[in-house]
Structure formats: C-alpha cells, structure tokens
Specification:
Elements lengths: L5 H26 L3 E7 L7 E7 L5 H28 L19 H4 L8 H9 L8 H11 L6 E11 L9 E2 L12 E7 L7 E11 L10 H25 L6
Antiparallel strand pairs: 1-2, 2-5, 3-6, 4-5
Helix pairs in contact: 1-2, 1-6, 2-5, 2-6
Length: 253
C-alpha cells in the first residue's frame, strides 16, 4: 500500500532544499558587504557630523522568491496531510481538507469549515496544534507569511555596537544612540554624532542579516532562524497527524 503522507513528506523535503539554497543566497549577498560608512551633517545642527552605516545594495529578488518557496511548501505539506487523511477515511474527492489556520481561538470553529471532510478526531488534533494568534504564534505566522506580499516580506537589517578604543580620551561634544537601532525606512543606522572639532576614536562591530518585514509575530526576526524553526515544527506536526491517524485506524498500517 502506498504511503498516504508521501506528498507531505516530499513538500517538507523540498522546503528544506529551498532553505539550503536561501542560506547560500543570503551568505553570498552579505559577503559583498552591501553597506558603507558615511559621514553627514546633522539636519538640525550643521556644525555636528553624524557617522552612519548605510545600505548600498538592494536585497536580490531571488531571496524573497526562495523564502516564499520554503513557506509555501511547508503550508502545502500541512494541507496535503489533511487531504490524505480525508481520502483514507473514505471521502473520494475531498473539497474541504485544508489545515485550519485562524485569526484567533474564537475563529477556530469557522476555520474548521475548511476541514469538514476530515474526521472529527483529526479536526480536534488540528485544534490542539493551536494554529491561531495567541496559541502557537509561530505556526500561525506561517500562514501569514504565505499570504503576504513576497516583494515586501524581507528587508535588510543590521545590528551593531560602538566601543570607544581603550585608553583613548575623547575631546569635544559627542553623543551615541543606546542601543544602536537600524532605521528600516532609511536602511541605515546612526553610529555617533560629533560636535565641531570633536575627536573621538571608536571601534565598530557590525552584523548584517535579512529579516521578515511587516509580518506580525516574526516582524524584524531573521529569516533563516524563523524558517529553520518552522521546518522543524511542520515536520513534527506531520509525525503527530500520521501517528494519530494510524492509531484510530483511519490510515491502515
């Protein structure tokens, strides 16, 4: 007998392949140092100078495309598992077998309408995964990422720290943000502001990554870390669905 969950397993395997490709694409982009250090006059005080880090290159569209490939395969793996269980339960042509993501726990009952061809016991199992905001927020975010605008879903984001060089005395006015915060709108980060004739020696440690943009729960979080967690989560959910379906005798050994 063929494996009813083979399609879901293939989708997860495909998601992992895309994840590895994404890792390489992001690494390739960051290795070109797509930023530079600039010095600009302070907008409110021309005698002061602001030292900044600015992005000089846009994120390749392929990074957003590959991110979409990962999440779409993961969501499809969950939907395909529902379809497999519905067919195994005797529904010849399931029309309502989607994995029931919901905006809140109060909306889960309505969301289960999209899963009504699946046996009630497995619907209950789906509810136990809490695929709604306020339940398993990361799982819920999977659906939000899939439904988002892929051209806006990822952004460059940098983190850094300025350290004064040991044993160096500053002269004149200076100020530093604490902590240093990446300005998404301008794709830059202010390091330090120096007054007229001020002297200040410092070291700067900078780390660059690609993060999700404007997606609730994962907004500002590194893409690779979120997707790695989602791959593991979806794989464990599939294991639970298969085990429960076999225990109930819906899927025969």
């Amino acid at each position: 007998m063929s494996d009813p969950f083979e399609s879901s397993r293939r989708k997860i395997a495909r998601a992992k392949e895309h994840f590895l490709n994404l890792h390489r694409e992001i690494e390739k982009f960051t290795l070109v140092n797509p930023y530079e250090r600039v010095i600009e006059p302070h907008p409110d005080n021309p005698d002061h100078l602001i030292h900044k880090i600015k992005m000089t290159k846009e994120i390749p569209a392929s990074i957003a495309d590959t991110t979409a490939d990962v999440v779409n395969n993961l969501r499809n793996a969950l939907d395909n598992s529902g379809y497999a269980v519905a067919v195994a339960s005797g529904v010849a042509d399931p029309k309502f077998s989607a994995f029931p993501f919901a905006r809140s726990v109060a909306q889960m009952a309505n969301s289960l309408g999209r899963s009504k061809d699946i046996p009630k016991e497995i619907q209950s199992l789906f509810c136990g995964f809490q695929p709604y905001l306020g339940g398993d927020d990361l799982l819920w975010a999977l659906n939000e990422i899939c439904n988002g605008d892929k051209h806006k879903m990822v952004i460059p984001i940098g983190t850094g720290m300025v350290r004064a060089a040991a044993g160096v005395e500053s002269v004149g006015y200076f100020s530093m943000p604490e902590p240093h915060v990446w300005n998404r709108a301008k794709n830059e980060m202010e390091l330090i502001t120096l007054g007229k004739d001020a002297k200040f020696k410092y070291n700067f440690h900078f780390r660059f990554s690609v993060a999700f943009n404007d997606i609730q729960v994962v907004d500002g979080e590194p893409v690779l870390g979120v997707l790695d967690d989602l791959c593991g989560k979806v794989e464990s959910i599939l294991v639970c669905i298969e085990a429960e379906s076999r225990r109930l005798g819906i899927v025969k050994a």
